[in-house]
Sequence to fold (121 residues):
Amino acid sequence: MSGRYDIDASSTLRELRQLDESLYSPSDQHPDLCDALHSKIQIEVVAILQHVDRIPLNGIPESALLFPLFLLGGEVTDPLHMDIIHMRLRLMLDKRPFQNILRALEVRGGVGPSPVSSGRS
Fold:
């Protein structure tokens, strides 16, 4: 799968987020449209997570995942998706102990024992 799909998914996610923000206001009367937008954003979240899953652990391309994973963490609503993001960031941190990865985990609430070490399945 080419990198073009990753760019398309990220671009689509960004555009959906911008549209969502432009529609939001306390007096907004578009709940159906907002619900549809949130559903589309979550579809893109799943697509991006599938692309991330195809990138080999500890491979050179993995080093470019920090920013996309960080941004994606701001869009997820499913706790399982956030767990996937946290796990990948922890694996990256184990390989590359950079402060920016640790900070991303702190901001996204993923600091602490990993699910594997805490006995979660």
